[in-house]
Amino acid sequence: MSSEVSGMLDEKRVVLMTKMAMYEENNKGKEDIRVSTYFRKDYSSKNLLWSFIWFTVGYILLGLLVGISFSEALMNGGNIMVLILSGIIAIFVYIAGLIGTLVYTYRRCKKRHSDARQRVKIYNRDLVTLLKMYEKESKS
Fold it and tell me: Residue 127 is inside which H or E element, if any?
């Protein structure tokens, strides 16, 4: 009977170890472990900062592209009021786009961090189960 129990423990342990190894090697598992090392606020702040930087860089590049495209028309007979109004509209569009981007980034990061923490908790629970299996086997 003892060999049957030992055989079942070995089979359960192998299945558990395989499941854990697949999770560790999976890109999702690596990402989950990396994300879960951060506090939620730190993870969100880091991603919010990167979103702010990339949105601003993209908006500046887009503004330069549009400015270069219409520079000849502005030089030939552009009205100063149209230029000022265009600048004000561009600032409002930037602020609205930035707020939308940051809200989206915050929500996405909050969900991603929460989901990753849940999967890592399951992984940690499996580690404890595996440790208990080894301890039980060493006592026998």
Answer: helix 80-139
pLDDT digit string, tens, across residues 113-137: 999 999 999 999 999 999 988 888 8
Note the Cα 59 to chain centre separation in Å: 22
Per-residue pLDDT tens digits for 67-83: 888 887 777 776 788 88
Question: Which is nearest to 70 in space by CA: 97, 92, 94, 90?
Answer: 90
Distance of CA 37 to the CA centre of its chain: 12
Whole-angstrom distance, CA of residue 43 vs CA of residue 45: 6
Instruction: Round to the nearest angstrom and report the end-to-end CA distance of the chain.
Output: 13
Which residue, chain included where needed, has tokens 């006592």? 139
